[in-house]
């Protein structure tokens, strides 16, 4: 079978079968004879997936996966290739992470299922979204939000260190994402510059949840060494077990150092020396780094986890005071389920955003029948995929993916010899989408 969960390949093309849908998805032979009403985009697409030779060929050769038209490759990882794709109905661009199931050993499969289950729970402006999972006998496709602005590692390697305000804007978004994850007991465990992506409008998207884990409590001890050694906290090398949140905080300290200096705080020719450097906390901050930023780095890169700044202390630090987020524009309440959206009458929905999603779904040809039989809460459903894409589009229209801005100045007493002043109040910063 090709093309994902959609059982479109059959010996006789006109007898093909679209497995996850009701009969209204595709035209039947009888309806064709009777001059049917104009087909909806959904009916046209699903009929093409069953009957149109070109579409079927594209599904068979991997130029289409489910409802997605696949384009060029954007990158590759240890177990995956990432391609750009478009949703054939919603038309939005997505990133398709393609995994060859035959190359995944038992451990890689466990990591992948954790990646999917963590991403299922995450909906935040600074976290890459998972829209859908499509599976074939040989491949697994994670359909992800597309972040087309490159990654932080490449940005610094190509352009050099970031200026102070840019570093603030980037760190504040990473911090907001991590605070949100920790609040729902998800630990990332692989924060590094390569996993900090940007959209084309410079909004930060934390990616790669392959090493993430869900704890029942933030004080749960973990014991698996995860992540990249230059970003690893000393307790990972030193202790039998560790707590999740301080490990992500440490990695943010390394990231911050890397952003403001263009170099890594801990460097060594061998792993043994790197380990020693990290355990000893041996790093030097260049004197030209702004005082409040130096203070933040020193608060984070402390070898004993209990002494290390917590996420809330980072959020309250002087250096990040002038960062202002526009996310008050984004609704705080969860959106109605797909089932209740499509089951409601016009005018019944409270929110403009929900009306917008419902009318887009209806224009495409979705009715309340589709979520009933297509597991709408499950990522492995094409109905979920289109719903999540439309939901995100509506949220973006309301400013959800706007990067924060830096307002005013916080003086650096070390450089200017003046008393520090706080021009901005804490209330304006780091609002979270919950
Ligand atoms: P590994 O899996 O070994 O940790 P990795 O993190 O580089 O490696 P992937 O997450 O598969 O692997 O990403 C591979 C490449 O695709 C990276 O260069 C990354 O920048 C790019 N990429 C990943 N996700 C997206 C996305 N959502 N949007 C745009 N590009 C992406």
Provide a concise account of the structure shown.
By secondary structure, the chain is of the alpha+beta class.
Structural descriptors:
434 residues; alpha+beta; Transferase(Phosphotransferase), domain 1; 6-stranded antiparallel beta sheet; two-stranded antiparallel ribbon; 16 helices; 13% strand; binds adenosine-5'-triphosphate
Protein described:
- There is one protein chain.
- With 434 residues, the chain is an alpha+beta fold.
- The longest helix is centred in the middle third of the chain and has 20 residues, at 164-183.
- It has a domain at 152-327 and 404-433: Transferase(Phosphotransferase) domain 1 (Transferase(Phosphotransferase), domain 1).
- The relative contact order is 0.12.
- The strands form five sheets. It has a six-stranded antiparallel β-sheet. A two-stranded antiparallel ribbon has the order 7-10. Strands 8-9 form a two-stranded antiparallel sheet.
- It contains 16 helices and 14 strands.
- It has helices at residues 29-33, 41-51, 53-60, 106-121, 152-159, 164-183, 234-238, 244-261, 271-280, 291-300, 311-315, 338-343, 352-364, 369-373, 382-397, 413-416; strands at residues 64-65, 68-76, 80-87, 93-100, 130-135, 139-145, 186-187, 196-198, 204-206, 213-214, 221-222, 242-243, 323-324, 405-406.
- The model is unreliable at 1-25 and 415-434 (pLDDT under 50).
- A hairpin with a 5-residue loop joins strand 8 (196-198) and strand 9.
- Residues 74-80, 82, 95, 97, 128, 144-147, 151, 194, 197, 207-208, 210 line the site of adenosine-5'-triphosphate.
């Amino acid at each position: 079978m090709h093309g994902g969960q959609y059982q479109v390949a059959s010996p006789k093309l006109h007898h093909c079968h679209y497995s996850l849908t009701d009969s209204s998805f595709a035209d039947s032979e009888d309806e064709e004879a009777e001059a049917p009403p104009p087909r909806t985009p959904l009916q046209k697409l699903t009929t093409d997936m069953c009957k149109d030779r070109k579409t079927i060929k594209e599904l068979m050769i991997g130029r289409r996966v489910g409802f997605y038209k696949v384009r060029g490759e954007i990158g590759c990882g240890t177990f995956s290739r990432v391609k750009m794709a478009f949703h054939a109905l919603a038309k939005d661009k997505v990133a398709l992470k393609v995994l060859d199931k035959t190359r995944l050993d038992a451990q890689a499969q466990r990591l992948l299922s954790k990646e999917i289950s963590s991403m299922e729970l995450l909906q935040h402006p600074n976290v890459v979204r998972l829209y859908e999972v499509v599976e074939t006998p040989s491949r697994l496709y994670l359909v992800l939000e597309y972040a087309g602005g490159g990654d932080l590692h490449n940005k610094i390697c190509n352009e050099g260190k970031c200026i102070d305000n840019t570093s603030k804007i980037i760190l504040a978004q990473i911090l907001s994402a991590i605070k949100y994850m920790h609040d729902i007991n998800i630990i990332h465990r692989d924060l590094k510059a390569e996993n900090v992506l940007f959209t084309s409008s410079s909004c930060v998207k934390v990616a790669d949840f392959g090493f993430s884990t869900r704890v029942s409590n933030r004080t749960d001890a973990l014991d698996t060494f995860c992540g990249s050694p230059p970003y690893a906290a000393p307790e990972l090398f030193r202790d039998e077990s560790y707590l999740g949140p301080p490990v992500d905080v440490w990695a943010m300290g390394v990231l911050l150092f890397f952003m403001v200096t263009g170099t890594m705080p801990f460097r060594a020719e061998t792993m043994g020396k790197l380990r020693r450097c990290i355990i000893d906390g041996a790093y030097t901050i260049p004197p030209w780094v702004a005082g409040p930023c130096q203070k933040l780095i020193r608060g984070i890169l402390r070898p004993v986890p209990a002494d290390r700044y917590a996420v809330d202390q980072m959020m309250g630090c002087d250096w990040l005071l002038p960062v202002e987020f526009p996310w008050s524009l984004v609704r705080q309440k969860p959106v109605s389920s797909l089932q209740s959206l499509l089951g409601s009458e016009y005018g019944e929905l409270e929110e403009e955003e929900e009306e917008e999603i419902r009318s887009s779904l209806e224009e495409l040809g979705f009715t309340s029948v589709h979520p009933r039989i297509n597991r709408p809460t499950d990522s492995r459903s094409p109905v979920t995929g289109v719903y999540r894409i439309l939901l995100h589009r509506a949220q973006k229209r309301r400013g959800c993916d706007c990067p924060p801005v830096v307002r005013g100045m916080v003086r650096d007493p070390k450089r200017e010899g003046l008393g520090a002043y706080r021009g901005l109040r804490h209330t304006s910063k780091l609002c979270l989408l919950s």
